[in-house]
Amino acid sequence: MASINPSWNAPRHNGVKEIVSGKLIKPKNEMEKKLENLTKQEWDTLFPVELVSHNPMWKNIYEKEERKIIEKLGSETIIRIEHFGSTSIPGIRAKPYIDIIIEIPKDRLFDEEIINGLF
Fold first, then answer.
1. What distance in Å separates the CA atoms of residue 63 and residue 5, rounded to the nearest whole number?
2. What are the φ and ψ backbone dihedral angles of 12, each rounded to 5 degrees?
3. CB 25 within 8 A of CB 18
4. Which listed site, 8, 27, 68, 97, has its alpha carbon 20 to 30 Å from 15?
């Protein structure tokens, strides 16, 4: 199982303090527990998944973000940009996050100009 970035702090639910290096850190009176040993209930508490009814505005939100990305990077840099994931499918419940995939030329994969251009 991949380790979690030590600087990331999990939401404070049910006495859980944070997750550091793949370990669930609980208050001193409780044992530490590794992520792979969490129960389903503990996972659901630490990492809740919210599904909501489809929102027709998601398409508009994506289109606005697409324009911003193209403005920042330039259309000559982008091979393809798409709205994907559950929010792109009308009529189904989804996590309320807009997933966007951007394809750029392979030779520019780790180009800092592109990376910094998105911020």
1. 32
2. -85, 95
3. yes
4. 97
Helix, strand, coil percent values for the chain (each to nearest 5): 35, 15, 50
Q: Are 97 and 49 in contact (CB under 8 A)?
A: no
> Could you give the residue ranges of the DSSP H alpha helices within the chain?
40-46, 57-73, 112-117
End-to-end, the C-alpha distance of the chain in Å comes to 30
CA triplet 6, 11, 12: central angle to 5 degrees?
105
Res 81: pLDDT: 97
pTM, rounded to two decimals: 0.63
Mean pLDDT by 10 residues, the chain (119 residues): 40 51 57 84 90 97 96 94 96 96 94 88
Spatial distance between the Cα atoms of 91 and 59, rounded to a whole number of angstroms = 12
Tokens linked to 30: 């409780």
